[in-house]
Amino acid sequence: MLDASCALKDEMTPHERMGSLMQGKPIDRIPCVPMIGAVAAKLIGVHVNEMLQSPRLTADAQIRSYELFHHDSVSVCIGSHAIATAFGGRMTDPVDDNPAMKVNPIQTEQDLDRLDLADLDKCPAIQVPLEAAKILVDRLGGEVGTGLIVGGPFSVASSLRGTNFLLREIIRNPEFAHRLIEFSLQCSIRAALPFLREGVSPLIVDPVASGSILDRKKAAEFAFAYTRRLIKEFQKYAPAVVLHICGNTRKLLDQMADSGAACLSLDNVVDLEQAKKQVGDRVMLNGNVDPVNVMFLGNKDLIHQAVKTCLAKAWDNPRGYILATGCDLPIKTPVENIAEFVDAARIYGKWPLDPKNFS
Ligand SMILES: [Zn+2]
């Protein structure tokens, strides 16, 4: 299984590549980021729940993934559920899956007043990835950047209160919904700052703020008003903030671009060409090979075709383009498929980009 490392080699390290790209200098290939989260556990032969409880295993799994694929970012994660556990929320503990929320810590309006932000500072679900991030920066910092995937305010509010209840509060008790999302914003900031001080780059994930759940007006008032402030806070440490919202964000693209994010990470249901036309002069685009039907269930041919399609749509995005998967890879994604993905980036995304290579 672990022989499935990529066959092709690079001429530059990810740091050299990203640095030259930002300065408008030539690079060797398109930057490439398969989102390797929980699937990394199997690269070091441990269960996902073991990895998530150990800084050493969390770091080792990311280091192993980098040794195998030499992709352009390693990462750790504090999702919205993890943040909710700081306040008494409880997650499931599946052996080989991402945990789901079991008990939301806020059941009544009064519960919010009892929560203390300082509880985040000793939360194991934040301390483990923080210690892992320090190891990654120490071990790989000379070559590749470490990213922090952090839950955005709307999704944190959803983990604190429960999605259905949050949506109900928005209609019936918008004043409380705002107080809750304001508290969630402060949670995202407080949880992430220790990472950013270590030189880790933020990628905000706000799956619940998807266009499938909120209309434009509600998204502006209850999601983006807070995301903008989060990004502004993060920019004090890291100028290039990435924003990822799962699902269909076609109708939210301009609001995402207005958030201050330097780069939008788009789900595979969003058309990259349409995104390029709509917001490509304002933001870098990142995406969006289908993580399920192509990466998990597909084969070499399907992966190469999907990479070529993404390149054909977004290679000339005015503010730049990073080839990536549309969301986190499923845990059972074959390791060979990740290797095919990064090799396809090297073949079709060879510099200088030429449409003849991916048409
Ligand atoms: Zn996603």
From TrEMBL:
This protein's name: Uroporphyrinogen decarboxylase (URO-D) domain-containing protein
Single Gene Ontology BP annotation: porphyrin-containing compound biosynthetic process
Signal sequence interval, chain numbering: none
Domain of life: Bacteria
InterPro entries reported for this sequence: Methanogen_methyltrans, UROD/MetE-like_sf, Uroporphyrinogen_deCOase
A Pfam family: URO-D
Uroporphyrinogen decarboxylase (URO-D) domain residues: 13-346
PANTHER family on file: METHYLCOBAMIDE:COM METHYLTRANSFERASE MTBA
GO molecular function terms noted in the UniProt entry: uroporphyrinogen decarboxylase activity
